[in-house]
Amino acid sequence: MSLEAITSVAIAEQEARNAIASAQAQAKQLLSDAQAAGEASLEAARAKADSELEALRRKAEEKSRADSDALNRSLEEERQALRRKAEAKLDAAAALIVERIVKD
Is the pTM value of this prediction over 0.70? Predict the structure, then answer.
């Protein structure tokens, strides 16, 4: 083999090694970029989920507070109605007691 052919083969081998090294470096960079993009996407999804969860928690608390207030109003109205009924019967009960005491 002539010196020129040997030199040509050596140059071709060196170019092939350079191409392989370049391809490996590019593959590592692509992998690194994909991993970073995946982590960013995951973090964005977590942040969105946290935000939605917080919104749902606030909404549930507001509904719970509204339901509690409505129940308290209803129970207060019922308590007042029972009190009015009892007060209305109080005079009759007192008269009945006095009548029984006087008869004895």
Answer: no
Domain ranges of the chain: 1-74
Answer positive or negative: Cα dihedral of 74, 79, 83, 85: positive
**How confident is the prediction along the chain (104 residues), in pLDDT tens digits per residue?**
688 888 999 999 999 999 999 999 999 999 999 999 999 999 999 999 999 999 999 999 999 999 999 999 999 999 999 999 998 888 888 888 888 888 76
Helix/strand number for the chain, H first, E second: 1, 0
Instruction: Quote the DSSP letter at residue 46.
Output: H
Q: How far apart, in whole angstroms, are the C-alpha atoms of residue 85 and residue 91?
A: 11
